[in-house]
Design goal:
Layout: H1 2-11, H2 33-42, H3 52-66
């Protein structure tokens, strides 16, 4: 338990709080997949909207990073 507390303390931030997942509390890792998938589906994630101008800016930035 002390190791879990140390792990959570070392990795938790205000924006990304640490949490224990079912595999960490002695369950089979496969048991948590439906819960994780449900949580991800509930987020209703989508790609951000963009413009052609912004796409051109991103292409320019990408070229700079590839150097």
């Amino acid at each position: 338990m002390q190791a879990y507390e140390a792990l959570l303390h070392a990795t938790s931030t205000h924006h990304a709080p640490g949490m224990l997942f079912p595999p960490m509390i002695r369950k089979c890792p496969v048991d948590c997949f439906p819960d994780v998938l449900d949580a991800l589906n509930d987020l209703k994630m989508a790609y951000p909207k963009t413009t052609s101008k912004r796409r051109q800016e991103l292409k320019s930035i990408r070229k700079l990073l590839e150097r």
